[in-house]
Specification:
mainly alpha; Catalytic domain of cyclic nucleotide phosphodiesterase 4b2b; two-stranded antiparallel sheet; globular; binds zinc ion
């Protein structure tokens, strides 16, 4: 057997894609946007395969893609059992089928899927590396199933997207809107397509290797469904749920004290107070403060009447109850205190929030990377919206206010998202960089955005004349 035959397939490519600096993704040649479909397939296969190896071979000791690839390349050994050539073929086939089902939209296409997948991989990689500085990951580093779910979700997250916003599909009574009751229509479709393909007999060997127990598959599916639905940032319900989870998992520190978003009652519905980035502690003696105190005492009174045992637990975001009264754990809170949970204390809610932020950020990564990526993808999005507009599939003419709207998106959505990336703490010293890059892009947009907008409008009129 020659040296190259004994090398683990795709390890070299996965390594080269993982060592690219975050802000160079898309700009550096191995990651740049390409019309070469096979190239897109190879990149996605390489990064997915390494996560398959980590999950199937039990490599879960906090090793990132870079370190796994380096180790096997240095040993000059093929991937270990159960990673057989036919299993690798199944990964290749799955990626090819999924990327092939992406429509030829100007923005929501297979190039976007590949960019999001590479960016997701890099964020996971940064978290793996921040271990060296003793930074918490809330269990993500050693959770190979969660890492696999992130890459898988990135691959499928926009498959079969039609380039038409959900609200328009609902307005048109599109078949999918009827099927999914107007809720996260495109995302639900992508999940269906991704899982319907994955569950085919063609991928049995792959599934068996990844999920020797049914419970592992259930957990994987739960992660992926949650992650993909969370990319629907236009859904007020999803946004509100995410906010609630975020504030529950990562309370702000005010005067050295942790401040959780107020939950009107720990039993049942989580009614949240209005909160924003400038949220402050409620002043003593206010009406809201009074209400909070009342609810606290109500909780205490209720708690005293509940028999001791597993039911004496807080419901709401972490737990719920079914009709039989059985308490269902949504997120266990083992080791909520990171110091109590060792160097990398686990917390399912924190882990879920960290995962959601990773995919949400990766989905708009081009704005948080180099300026050229922001200009490129902003123009592609313009074209997609222009196409929908001239085809009477959108009432919004994107040429109006494009320059201003992009500033609004940068300031109202992206910068707060970047602050969250830093606030969760898992990126260590890299954390503040995301907001720095985005601020720089915002400043560059203020100077060059008019030119980029003019060009996009010209290209849009040529490609999709009215
Ligand atoms: Zn997307």
């Amino acid at each position: 057997m020659s040296a190259s035959e004994s090398m683990p397939p795709y390890a070299g490519l996965a390594l080269s894609l993982s060592v690219v600096e975050w802000w160079m993704i898309g700009a550096e040649s191995s990651t740049e946007s390409t019309e070469n479909f096979q190239e897109l397939c190879d990149r996605c296969t390489a990064l997915l395969l390494v996560r398959v190896v980590a999950q199937a071979c039990g490599i879960s000791t906090g090793e990132g893609t870079t370190s796994i690839c380096r180790k096997f390349l240095m040993k000059q050994e093929p991937w270990p059992e159960p990673i057989t050539p036919s299993l690798i073929n199944q990964v290749e086939q799955y990626v090819r089928v999924i990327l092939g089902k992406y429509n030829d939209c100007p923005y929501h296409n297979s190039k976007h899927a590949c960019h999001v997948l590479m960016s997701t991989n890099k964020l996971c990689e940064l978290i793996a590396q921040s271990q060296l500085n003793g930074v918490h990951s809330y269990g993500l580093r050693k959770d190979s199933l969660a890492n696999l779910a992130l890459i898988f979700a990135a691959l499928i997250h926009d498959v079969e997207h039609q380039g038409i916003p959900n609200r328009q599909l609902a307005y048109e009574d599109d078949e999918l809107a009827v099927l999914y009751n107007d809720l996260s229509i495109a995302e639900q479709r992508s999940l269906y397509v991704g899982f319907a393909e994955f569950l085919k007999p063609d991928y049995k060997e792959l599934r068996d290797a990844l999920f020797p127990e049914k419970e592992l598959y259930r957990k994987f599916r739960q992660h992926v469904v949650n992650l993909v639905l969370n990319t629907d940032i236009a859904s007020p319900e999803r946004t509100q749920l995410f906010k609630s989870k975020f504030h529950e998992a990562f309370p702000k520190e005010v005067d050295g004290k942790l401040v959780r978003t107020f939950s009107a009652s720990s039993f049942g519905s989580d009614v949240e107070e209005e909160e924003d980035e400038n949220e402050e502690a409620e002043p003593e003696g206010s009406m809201l403060q009074h209400l909070k105190e009342k609810c606290k005492s109500l909780d205490t009174a209720l708690m005293t009447n509940i028999p001791k045992g597993p039911r004496r637990q807080r419901l709401g975001i972490r737990r719920s109850m079914d009709l039989s009264g059985e308490v269902l754990d949504s997120f266990s809170d083992h080791g909520q205190d990171p110091d109590a949970g060792g160097a990398d204390g686990e917390d399912d809610l924190k882990l879920a929030v960290v995962m959601e932020i990773i995919l949400t950020a990766a989905d708009v990564a081009h704005n948080i990377q180099g300026w050229d990526q922001m200009a490129l993808w902003s123009s592609r999005l313009y074209l997609e919206l222009r196409k929908a507009y001239v085809n009477d599939r959108s009432a919004m003419d994107p040429s109006k206010q494009w320059f201003e709207n992009q500033i609004g998106f940068l300031e109202s959505y992206l910068l707060p998202l970047c602050k969250k990336l830093d606030h969760i703490g898992v990126f260590g010293i890299v954390g503040p960089k995301f907001a720095e890059i985005t601020t720089k892009n915002r400043d560059t947009w203020l100077i060059q955005g008019i030119k980029v907008t003019d060009q996009a409008i010209k290209d849009g009129a040529a490609a999709f004349p009215s």
